[in-house]
Every structure is written in structure tokens, then in C-alpha cells.
Write a structure and sequence with these properties.
Pfam family, one: Flavin_Reduct
CATH topology: Pnp Oxidase, Chain A
Strand content: 35-45%
Keywords: Flavoprotein
Shape: globular
Number of strands: 12
CATH class: Mainly Beta
Family: Belongs to the flavoredoxin family.
Number of helices: 4
Organism: Oleidesulfovibrio alaskensis (strain ATCC BAA-1058 / DSM 17464 / G20) (Desulfovibrio alaskensis)
Helix content: 10-25%
Order of helices and strands: EEEEEHEHHEEEEHEE
CATH superfamily: Electron Transport, Fmn-binding Protein, Chain A
Mean pLDDT: 96
Distance between the termini: 29 Å
InterPro entries: Flavin_Rdtase-like_dom, Flavoredoxin, Split_barrel_FMN-bd
Oligomer: single chain
Low-confidence stretches: none
Length: 190
């Protein structure tokens, strides 16, 4: 039997992303966001939903660009802090001792210390209640070479991304390898 929790933002897993933007004074900013993820394959696109009250919201609209820096578990507290204070009143890069790196494809900064970075050009924005969903076409993905596997592709265990549990507000690490996508299910085919 299942217990009903009603209409809640309960879906597992949620990411811990840091959205990077420049403000009107060209000051780099990051904010933590969990309402985000890949939303289209062609063109490759990512969606992130932010409240209009956030400082990053206006910056995305003004610059038509944003980045997503994915922290490793070593930077979980840094990313969490980036979601606790406003970039309007504090330079979070300076406070956290992080390095803002200028995006090579979009007018937005990313966190140099974080192992995986996605550069997005804003293509759509939709008001969906309390949040605005920003959809950005992915123009480039950068991955630290130390996070690549023997096959030359990003290894999720080496990237070591943080997973967010919305209802309990807890952070978790990636678990064990379970099987190969689009292959494991073949064992059930009749």
C-alpha cells in the first residue's frame, strides 16, 4: 500500500546545480537551484526554474544566457551557501573563495573548481506560477579531465555530483552502478 503525500515537489533525484550569471555591472554570480534538468535532445537543452525574486532571474533575462556548474560532493557546502544569500548583496564567488571563469560560448560565468559545466543560451522563458522556467540551448559542456573514464567520457563517480532530496532537504552522493541503460531491460524481453 502506498501513502499519499498530496501535491508536493517530491521527485527523486533532484540535482544541486549552481546557475551562473553576470549582473548589469558585469559582476559574476551563482545561485543554487534544484528545479532543473535536461529537457530536450535536439537541440540539446536544459531547463532551470527560478523565482522572479532571485537576483539571477533578471540577469538571465538581460544577458539571455546562463551556465550550470555541477559541484562535486567536496563543494556541497559551497553550493548550498550559494542558495542561501542573494548575489545582490554579496559577491558569493569572493565569499566562497571560488573562481569565476568566463564562459567560452555564452555571456555568463561558471565555477572553475566544479568538475562539470554546461553553457546555455536562453531560448525560452515561461512563467509557471511561483517560478519562471528558463530553457537554454546547450552550446558546450566542459568536464575536468580528472573526471573522465578510460573510455574518455565523463564518469559519474568521478564527477561525484550532489543529489538533493526536496522533502527532507538532505544532500546525498551517487550510489553504486546497477546496469547499462537500454540493455538491462533486454533480460525481461519475451
Amino acid at each position: 500500500m502506498k501513502k499519499s503525500f498530496g501535491a508536493k515537489t517530491l521527485a527523486y533525484p533532484a540535482p544541486l546545480f549552481c546557475v551562473g550569471t553576470y549582473d548589469a555591472q558585469d559582476r559574476p554570480n551563482i545561485m543554487a537551484a534544484a528545479w532543473a534538468g535536461i529537457c530536450c535532445s535536439k537541440p540539446p537543452s536544459l531547463a532551470v526554474s527560478l523565482r522572479p525574486a532571485t537576483y539571477s532571474h533578471g540577469a538571465i533575462l538581460a544577458r539571455r544566457a546562463f551556465t550550470v556548474s555541477i559541484p562535486s560532493s567536496a563543494y556541497m557546502a559551497h553550493a548550498d551557501y550559494a542558495g542561501m544569500v542573494s548575489g545582490e548583496t554579496e559577491n558569493k564567488f569572493e565569499t566562497l573563495g571560488l573562481t569565476p571563469e568566463k564562459g567560452g560560448f555564452v555571456d555568463a560565468p561558471y565555477v572553475a573548481e566544479f568538475p562539470l559545466v554546461i553553457e546555455c543560451a536562453l531560448t525560452h522563458s515561461h512563467s509557471i506560477g511561483l517560478h519562471t522556467q528558463f530553457i537554454g540551448e546547450i552550446l558546450d559542456v566542459k568536464v575536468d579531465e580528472t573526471c573522465l573514464g578510460e573510455d574518455g567520457l565523463p564518469d559519474i563517480r568521478k564527477v561525484d555530483p550532489v543529489i538533493f532530496a526536496p522533502v527532507t532537504r538532505g544532500y546525498y552522493a551517487v550510489g553504486e552502478y546497477l546496469g547499462q541503460a537500454f540493455s538491462a531491460g533486454k533480460t525481461l524481453k519475451k
